[in-house]
Design goal:
It is built from twelve helices and 13 strands. By secondary structure, it is α/β, with parallel strands linked by helices. It is globular. The structure holds guanosine-5'-monophosphate and manganese (II) ion. The site of manganese (II) ion (MN) has 6 residues, from loops.
């Protein structure tokens, strides 16, 4: 993989560009894709964002989200964009399987693939150019670095600022995680100087839920959270019945896994959701327990040291049993 800096000199020649990100895009995935979309369009590039799946409706305030193609709903339209693209940017993921059913199409494209991502262990052979940096708080921060590095900071406007701020805010847990290095605050200061209304972005993301999501949260914390104090672990398992009862939609479970980490002594929080096609795991940790390694070893996943995800075809009961065995095996690391 060649350095992303080699792209800088090519930016001023208009091209057909596709941008894609991981399935069920979160604020960092959507914000980085749309931030880059608006930046590239300012040069006259013809840009299209393709999402592998649908996304939470509370991301629809983001400028340009109405132009994003949902591959699952419009596969032919997305395929046409991929056929015509000269560049394909892959943002906020580093291995094609994170795009679910879009994955085989990404292997097939003939255009130049460019990676911008902050997860561990990138599949670098699949990208011609790119930057992979796990010290970055978010992919949105990396898009900001890309814009500044290319010498076009002056093109950052309020629209780009809103998209990038949303991702960096969400991925840093509103600037509280250890990943919030000084450069993150400097970036936000610069975005503020571009006219960013950060309170509006915060409200759009965090004060934009429907009642059912709060009722669901109450139910989950009351009835579905199991504590395993001998392993400093909390587990939330959500059945299909729960999802139906509270009419849970894409995005409604976002952030749920973080709640148990606020309990004194808890070092590992795990959430498993019984989705139609798979059981989806989320892991969060405090301190040295490496949930990237844990998820890779037991649940076909990965991510970062303190935040990772995984998946399995096992039933909910079976995968919960496997999780309980896995934490026993890791008892000493969880002390
Ligand atoms: P989440 O729990 O929000 O789905 O994922 C937590 C973090 O781990 C996110 O940064 C996400 O991108 C990453 N992640 C989730 N699933 C996977 C996976 O299967 N592989 C890798 N490499 N990262 C993942
Ligand atoms: Mn991210």
């Amino acid at each position: 993989m060649k350095s992303i800096t080699e792209i800088y000199g090519l930016l001023s020649t208009p091209r057909r560009v596709a941008i894609t990100t991981h399935q069920k895009p979160d604020p960092d995935a959507m914000g980085s894709s749309l931030g880059l979309y608006h930046f590239l369009r300012s040069f006259g590039h013809e840009v299209t964002v393709i999402s592998p799946t649908n996304w939470a409706s509370w991301l629809n305030w983001m400028p340009g989200s109405d132009k994003v193609i949902d591959f699952e709903s419009f596969p032919d339209k997305a395929q046409e964009v991929l056929n015509q693209a000269e560049w394909l940017f892959c943002l906020d993921f580093n291995i094609f399987h994170r795009t679910k059913n879009l994955s085989p199409k990404l292997y097939d494209v003939r255009c130049t693939r460019i990676l911008i991502d902050h997860h561990q262990q990138p599949d670098a052979d699949n990208f011609e150019y790119g930057v992979s940096d796990t010290s970055k708080s978010s992919t949105c921060e990396m898009i900001y670095d890309f814009i500044v590095g290319s010498g076009h900071k002056d093109r950052i406007n309020n629209v780009i600022a809103e998209c990038l701020y949303a991702g960096v805010m969400a991925d840093t847990g509103s600037f509280r995680f250890a990943s919030t290095h000084a450069g993150v605050h400097r970036m936000v200061a610069e975005l503020k100087e571009k006219g960013l209304d950060h309170a509006k972005v915060h409200e759009n993301i965090y004060d934009n839920f429907l009642e059912n999501r709060f009722r669901f949260l109450g139910h989950v914390l009351m009835n579905r959270m199991e504590m395993y104090y001998e392993y400093n672990t909390a587990l939330i398992a959500i059945s299909k019945k729960d999802l139906l009862r509270f009419q849970v939609k894409t995005g409604d479970t976002e952030g749920l896994v973080n709640y148990p980490l606020s309990i004194q002594g808890i070092k590992l929080a795990a959430l498993v959701i019984d989705r139609d096609e798979e059981r989806k795991w989320s892991f969060r940790s405090k301190g040295g327990f490496d949930v990237n390694a844990f998820s890779r070893k037991y649940f076909n996943g990965g991510g970062h040291v303190n935040a990772s995800g995984g998946r399995t075809a096992d039933s909910l009961e079976t995968t919960v049993q496997k999780f309980l065995e896995a934490i026993k095996e890791n008892a000493s690391a969880l002390q």
